[in-house]
Design brief:
heterodimer, A: mainly alpha, Ribonuclease iii, N-terminal Endonuclease Domain, Chain A, Double Stranded RNA Binding Domain, three-stranded antiparallel β-sheet, 14 helices, B: alpha+beta, Glutaredoxin, 4 strands, 20% helix, extended, Ribonuclease III (chain A)
Chain lengths: 364, 146
Amino acid sequence: MQNVQRRLASTATAQKLKPTIPLSSIRAFPPPQALTPKDSKSPVLFDSDAWAASQSPSPAALGAFAHRVGLGKLSTNPELMQQACTHESITLPYSKLHPNKSLPLTNTNLAALGNSLLGLFATEFVHASYPHLPIRVVKAAVSAYVGPTTCADVAREMGAAPLLRWYRAPKTLLRPAVLHHEALSSVSRALIALVYQERSIEAAKKFAHDYFLSRDIDLRAMIKLMNPKKGLALTVEKFGREKPVSRLLKETGRFSAAPVFVVGIFSGQDKLGEGFGSSLSMAEFRAAEDALQRLYLTRTPLDQLQLPSQTFTGDVFDGLTSVKSSPYTAGELGHTEVNYGSAGRSSIINPSNRTLSEEELSED
Amino acid sequence: MATRTATRPIFRASLRSTQANGHSAFIPQCRKVVFEYCNKWPSSANTRTFLLNHLQSVAKENPHVEFVVKQRNQKEPVVRGFYINNRDKVVPLNGFEVNGIQKKVQLLLDSSGAKIKPLKRRTVESTTESARGIWSGLHVDQLFKI
């Protein structure tokens, strides 16, 4: 309607909402190097993918990302978040596009440092929480907590995917192809390193515990037992207990199509584990599995958890040791795990009499 | 030496953990809010008032969100919310008063971005009472403890 169109709304709005950034910094699109000048006959060679990849995210987006992760007041330097979100694969296309500009700071060193820190915190946490867990399962758990897949997932859940600056570099003779999840995982690792750099190792530990070690893993699925009866027999021997004996506790439908047997595995009077199955051997297998899982999955209660990193008093070079180390009592050195099925390399040959030298034999 | 295993091997790339947002640290799910308004039309008048008077305080209270203001002439006013799960919510702002616009913006900020699942379904209607009674969490032997 004409009346409505004549009723002009306040034009002062557009003026008041004028951006405070100068006009010179508004990015020109399409970029001048992409356009073919009228004089030239041949078209301009322009890598639009590289140009798109080398565009930096807006400072507002980076600031919002920092606040979302709780690092809004980490540093007065706004370039830090930019650095954390820049993968090294961007340097080659960037240098080709902007030969005169200095290369952007990348997160490679930060990611390497962050990876080491994460490995430290995760390993001590897993080992202190599950003191009887076999080493191969500890390794798998650490990979699950702070491995490359999880680091990429954490970065994605923080909202770093639209801010990541990377380039899908193809495979070369020296290195494999750069994948998206690889580039993403460097972001979350770089953040840990930034916290360590700007604050202290305790702050980095808290960050790691909040974002990585509070996540859920399926530890039971990582425990694969090839021969649980043998493993249990060896483990029981290590603990100095009586040999395990399996006894049938309950059964039903023995010669029918659907039998159920419940078998318990005992060491003397103590029942170590219980298992069910449609055959006696199946039930016995499950009982041995249950016994070993009850041992391996013993977890230290959170209020009794003692981590060696409690003894850190902050940076060695930092004179302000305001945070005093809390008293740490080392965990009991329990029985070492059995060789069978422990480190994941079942082809280890233990020295027998034939392999031992004469001197070693005479020592016994 | 047995080379065939009874169980499937675990590949290192498959080792991952599932998220537990809120257990220790909480990551707010809204990452960006974009306002699109017309400079001239009266349908955008209340939106313009909101942008001039209230947007700054809302942005200050939510430092984890990126606020963007776009002029989109000859169109109705709209606010878009972008979320971490790569979804977005679009809310038209014509017909709302300034406090209504505030509520819609707050709705976008509070949302997780997940699709709204309809839970209103026809309830079960029966003439006979249930055979075993309806379960109550307060009338059990051991109450659930977190």
